[in-house]
Amino acid sequence: MSVNISVPEDLYDKATAIAAAQKVSVDEVLATAFSEQLALWERLNARAQQGSREKFLAVLDRVPDVEPEEFDRF
């Protein structure tokens, strides 16, 4: 399958440099980057499915209700 996408020029330039250094096509560089990003999203989604609001709230309940130290304030 072939898909046309618009890529910002600075990213395309980086992909071109990587492709030249690795002696592969720019298409291969972009396809690999896209594939890795999709895999990352899948892993993140799988991790998110393991959590629950109840567990999150239980952890928050253990956090002390105190003002932050001076060095920790904005």
Summarize this, please?
The protein has helices at residues 9-22, 26-50, 53-61. It is mainly alpha-helical and 74 residues long.
Task: Characterize the structure shown.
The protein is mainly α. It has one domain (9-63). Helices cover 65% and strands 0% of the residues. It has helices at 9-22, 26-50, 53-61. The longest helix is centred in the middle third of the chain and has 25 residues, at 26-50. The model has no long low-confidence stretch (mean pLDDT 94).
Low-confidence stretches: none
Q: How large is the share of residues in beta strands?
A: under 5%
Put simply, the count of helices is 3
Order of helices and strands: HHH
Mean pLDDT: 94
Number of domains: 1
| Integer-rounded radius of gyration | 22 Å
| Inertia-based shape | elongated
Give the biggest sheet: none
Topology, number of strands:
0
Oligomeric state of the chains present here: single chain
C-alpha termini separation: 50 Å
Helix coverage percent of residues? 55-70%
Quickly give the structural class.
mainly alpha
Q: Which descriptors would you attach to this protein?
A:
mainly alpha, 74 residues, 65% helix
Task: Break the fold down into its secondary structure elements and pairings.
Blueprint: H1 9-22, H2 26-50, H3 53-61
Helix pairs in contact: 1-2
